[in-house]
Amino acid sequence: MKIEKIKLYEDREDVLLTAYILDDSPEMLKGGLRPAVVICPGGGYFSCSDREAEPVAMAFASMGYHAFVLKYSTYGMDAFINHFADMKSRPHCQNPNPMKEVGMAFKIVKENAEGWKVDKNRVAVCGFSAGAHNAAMYSTNWFKEVITNGEDEELYKPAACILGYCLSDYIYMKDHNTDKAFFDASNLSFFGSKDVSDEQLKEASPALNVTEKNPPTFLWATSEDSLVPVQHTLRMAHALADCKVPFEVHIFENGPHALSVASQASACAKNQIYPDVAKWVSLAEAWLLKRFALNLPDSFSYAELGI
């Protein structure tokens, strides 16, 4: 595996695309192309969680896909350190910048497809929590001028979308949030203000803006999630169904917010290990095989290796 780190802005270290490129081999694809997944970790638009970065990339790499982790613009960890006190607007991390950076990542992946041996027609976007919101925003807006800047849409088109415990409906969240201080601070990070109009909230709600151009989508969440209630996942699934976009949804009975791959690979404590929830990885793999199966021959013979 080759690992490369690519800055999206020359003068910034915080917005970074980390590429996990599987090595080519004469025993496997022999120069063939692999699908890829661009991963957006969560973190409330304050940070990008390491728990939802490399462990997720390794899960997709184990499926045979190249993986790319995007650390998009966020407010910064100082908001947590200061307990949200004295937060001020920071334009670099406000909507639509995080979503535009997903587009920048897609462009980098597709423009380097030949050297990295990426199938540029099969690049998915995946996200968790706020990163899932970012991925869902991208899936809903990838073809618009705000992303493409007038360039060929194919550079930006996602072939699939995978959303873990996604925040999808800010209008719903306005009346049903369970941690007002956290979401006021998150709103300041993402919108630039704690007082956000319903029009702004609707524009930033993927579940309220789904169209037939959304890619096939895999969603999962837990019914016990108290930070981003499961209704967000259900609302997104309902919107996809209304637009006849192919989707699959899995709701696990137990488990808190932010479980990532829900195994010791991503856990920092035993209470983040949920074997039932960890099944989302294999379920997503089975779902992706319908669209991302590698181009393999029907059979193998050792004679091909001269044995």
What does this structure look like?
With 307 residues, this protein is of the alpha/beta class. The chain is built from 12 helices and 8 strands. The protein has an 8-stranded mixed sheet with strand order 1-2-4-3-5-6-7-8, sandwiched between helices. α3 crosses α5 (130-141). The two termini are 26 Å apart. The mean pLDDT is 94.
Topology of helices and strands:
Layout: E1 2-7, E2 16-21, E3 34-40, H1 54-62, E4 66-71, H2 78-81, H3 97-111, H4 113-116, E5 118-128, H5 130-141, H6 145-148, E6 160-164, H7 170-176, H8 180-191, H9 198-203, E7 217-222, H10 231-242, E8 247-252, H11 275-278, H12 280-292
Parallel strand pairs: 3-4, 3-5, 5-6, 6-7, 7-8
Antiparallel strand pairs: 1-2, 2-4
Shape: globular
- In spatial order, strands of the major sheet run 1-2-4-3-5-6-7-8
The share of residues in extended strands comes to: 15-25%
Low-confidence stretches: none
Topology pattern, helix = H, strand = E? EEEHEHHHEHHEHHHEHEHH
- For the termini, the CA-CA separation is 26 Å
As a percent range, the share of helical residues equals 25-40%
> What do the pLDDT scores average to?
94
Structural class: alpha/beta
Radius of gyration: 19 Å
| Contiguous helical run count | 12
How many runs of DSSP E, i.e. beta strands? 8
What kind of sheet is the major sheet? 8 strands, mixed
